[in-house]
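Page 47, continued from p. 46.
Same chain as before, 210 aa.
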Amino acid sequence: MTYPAVSGQVAPEVLLVPPLRRPRLDRLAGWISNATHPPIIGAFVVLIAALVSARLTAWLWGALYLGLAVLLPTLYVAWLLRRGQITDMQLPDRRQRFKPYCVAIACMGLAALTLNAAHAPRLLQQIALINVIQSSALFLITLRWKVSAHCASMSGLAVLAWTLFGSGGLPFGVAVPVVAWARVRLKRHDYAQVIAGALLGAAAAWIVLR
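Result:
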């Protein structure tokens, strides 16, 4: 039995299609998008910094930074989702990104100031500054246009890996266009938005690290 589709709504039979029946490329794009969600990339970047520092204090500072700059904003987004104020943890609607960005920038700024005042490892301080710059730029752009935070985070990670490991960081650079493809495939962004996000993330990381 079929139902007439109403403009702006999805027909009921489409809603009932099991997720596993989606095209394989769509599922692959979904997995890539979930695995490279900015908070996950943020945690991975801090892990790299702690491993490079090879000191117990670096792990402790890294844990503090993750709690302030990554966990708190993520919990806030989850709270908004639970209250029905947003539709998705990945915030596909540009208008729903304003409050999360404000909270994230405040938390990241507090974390960066804390690391600086306590003379935490320099690399962690640089990462904290990169995140503040990147998130602030993304927020300002979001006021008028939608840009890919996924690509910004991944390209920032690629620049960090290249700075630390040279050609050993090449796989992270290769991952940037893969993430861009996933976001476009899922129709979360267009080509201009993923390219802009990648350039922004790379520029923020390059300026601070160099």
